[in-house]
Amino acid sequence: MATRVPGPLTRPAAAATGPVxxxxxxxxxxxxxxxxxxxxxxxxxxxxxxxxxRSGSGKSTLLRALAGLDSEAEGGLSVTGSxxxxxxxxxxxPWKRVHANITLGLAVxxxxxxxxxxxxxxxxxxxxxxxxLTLSGGEAQRASLARALVREPDLLLLDEPFxxxxxxxxxxxxxxxxxxWSVHRPAVLLVTHDVDEALLLADRVLVLxxxxxxxxSDVPAPRPRHRDHPDLTSLRTTLLAALGxxxxxxx
Length: 251
Ligand SMILES: Nc1ncnc2c1ncn2[C@@H]1O[C@H](COP(=O)(O)OP(=O)(O)O)[C@@H](O)[C@H]1O
Ligand SMILES: [Mg+2]
Description:
Elements: E1 21-30, E2 33-43, E3 48-53, H1 59-66, E4 74-79, E5 83-86, H2 98-103, H3 111-121, H4 137-149, E6 155-159, H5 167-184, E7 187-191, H6 195-201, E8 204-209, E9 212-218, H7 230-242
Parallel strand pairs: 3-7, 3-8, 5-6, 6-7
Antiparallel strand pairs: 1-2, 1-4, 8-9
Helix pairs in contact: 3-4, 4-5
The structure holds adenosine-5'-diphosphate and magnesium ion (MG).
Protein name: Aliphatic sulfonate ABC transporter ATP-binding protein
InterPro entries: AAA+_ATPase, ABC_transporter-like_ATP-bd, ABC_transporter-like_CS, ABC_transporter_ATP-bind, P-loop_NTPase
Keywords: ATP-binding, Cell membrane, Membrane, Nucleotide-binding, Translocase, Transport
């Protein structure tokens, strides 16, 4: 368990066992506004978690804290091992070709080979020499996944990475993410506003509301999953209710 510490966050050295991340009373205020309010969360090794929540509920704030990008969060937070993030916008450096984007800042003895392998895994070998601005949305997101994966993270944080993609590209990327996860087995925290996406991909779905994890459901259905699986149908209703939405009101 993480020790509760006031003030600065603790970041112990990597450990091979126990949860990959633990938030214990994590709090984040912006001025008068408390966005994360004594939030508790444990992320197990290799676990695939989806995080749902209304817009502005603090999902990205939580993700940034877990990624070590927020020095002003208070309370207990321990993250063991390495973390990589992929954002909604792929955030590729436009003046570097795709391959150079993957190796950027990569401190391993064989960055080129690692990047080649990651690009092959996401099906982008032929685009390795392309400029980011010439990529389609799906290709750019695959490059972003390759950049995260090449770091072999213990915890992969995904902040609505598929929401700007068209429906068909999204289906392909879902399959790719599951495949990459089953091979590399990082713990994944996927922020999404799409209940179906959460049910299709995750082992556990969390709902963030009023600064806390207000609801949590395990998703026991085996993969590959189908949207119409009866267990998922009832879970969908439960999650929509937790989000304060009636199923009839959604498409
Ligand atoms: N740097 C910041 N300064 C002030 N307010 C912020 C900052 N970052 C986020 N917020 C506020 O915190 C709340 C949660 O934001 P965010 O975590 O981005 O929500 P979500 O990702 O769930 O849509 C929002 O009201 C947002 O305006
Ligand atoms: Mg967000």
